[in-house]
Amino acid sequence: MQEGGFMKKLCGFLLIVLFLVGCGPKWAKKETMDALNEARAALKSAEARLTELENEKAQLLAQKAQLEQEIVNLSAEVDALQTKIDTRCKKK
Known about the structure:
Layout: H1 2-23, H2 30-91
């Protein structure tokens, strides 16, 4: 039984060593760092543009709601005027 425990410990140790060697710090090439910095800058730019577009969308939706209400009000006014016209023309 002790041999089995030793083998498990040895396998665990080897896995840890392989992980540290394989996933340890690596020095990135300048091109890789430049590409990463460019990608970060593009991300920031895209996020800023997204914020601008979301704000513009909110403004346009508010304007749309206002115009739709104006249409409702004008339609009611047209209906009221049409009713007045109809009643005045029938009296004569």
